[in-house]
Amino acid sequence: MRLDVGRRPGPTLVAFLLHGEANTRYLRHRKGKISAIPMIARESPASPRSLRVAFVGAGKMARQHLQALRYVAVPHRVLSVYDSSVRAARELAALAGAVAYPSLTALLGDAEPDVVHVCTSAGMHFEAAHQALQAQAHVYVEKPFVDTQDEADVLLRLAAGRNRLVCAGHQLLWDRAFRQWSARAAELAPMRLVDSHFTFNPSRLRLDRAGPTALAEQLLDILPHPLYTLVAALERFGGPDPVVTSLMASPTEVAASLGAGKVTGRLFVSLRARPIASTLTASGDGGSVTADFVRSIAFGAGNPGTTSIEKIFNPALEGWQLQSRAAVSLFRRLLAREGYPGLAEILGAFYQAVASGGVSPLPPEHLRSVTALHEEIGEAVRRATRSAKPARTALPPAAPVAVVTGARGYLGKEIARYLVRRGFRVRGVGRVADVDDPNVHEWVTADLGETLPAHGLVDAAVVIHAAAETAGGYEAHQRNSIDATRNVLRAMSAAHVRRLVYVSSLAVLRPPRTPWERLNERTPLARSPRKLGPYIWGKCTAEQLVTADAARLGIVPRIIRPAALIDLDHPDLPGRMGRRLFGRWHLGHGRPGLPMAICDVSVAGAVIAWCAECFEDAPPVLNLVDGTRATRRDLLRAFRQRGWPGRVVWVPISLLAALLSAARAVLALARGQWPTRLAAWDILRPRRYDDAVASRVLALSMRDERTHSWKAEAAGIPSGRGELDG
Question: At the topology level of CATH, where does 401-575+594-644+691-725 sit?
Answer without folding.
Answer: Rossmann fold (3.40.50)
